[in-house]
Amino acid sequence: MDATASPTLSEREAVRVFLRRLKEHRLARNWSQAEMARRAGLTRTGYQNLELGLSKPTLLTVVRILGVLGCLDRLAELIPPAEAPRTLESLSAPVRMRAWRANPKPLAPKPPTRG
User: How far apart, in Å, do the first and last CA atoms of the chain sit?
Assistant: First the structure.
C-alpha cells in the first residue's frame, strides 16, 4: 500500500470482511449453515447465498443474524452519535464577553468633614 492509498475499506472489501467474520462466528459455534439459517429465521439456501456473497441481505436480516450471534449491541457502534447541526445564526452571532468595570476596586471611605 502506498502513502496515497486510503486507509478505509472499499464497499466490496467491507462486505468480504463482514461475510468472513459471519462465517467465523458460525463455525466457532460449530453450527452448520442450516442451523444458522434456522436460528435466524431464514431458509438454508437463503443463508448460504448470503454467506457466499450471492445475495444482498436486508437490514432486518443482518439484525436477526447479529442477534443470533449475540453481537446486536455492536451494531450501534457502526454509526457515531450525530453532533448538533450548526445554524447560520449560531455562526454569525457575536461572541459574548463579560462586562468590563472601569473601577473594579471599591472606593475608600471619605474622611469626615468638619463643619
Answer: 95
CB atoms within 10 A of CB 43: 12
Q: How many Å is the Cα radius of gyration of the chain?
A: 32
Task: Say if 4 falls within a structural domain.
Answer: no
Side chain identity at residue 33, one-letter code: Q
Query: For residue 70, what are the domain limits?
Result: 11-78
Q: Which residue ranges in the chain fall short of pLDDT 70?
A: 1-7, 90-91, 93, 95, 100-109, 115
pLDDT of residue 3: 43
Match 447541526 to its residue by C-alpha cell. 85
Report yes or no on 66 lying in a domain: yes
Cell match 457466499: residue?
52
pLDDT of residue 20: 95
Query: Strand, helix or coil at 71?
Result: coil
Length reported for the chain? 115
Residue 24 is assigned to a structural domain of this protein: yes
Would residue 49 count as lying in a domain?
A: yes
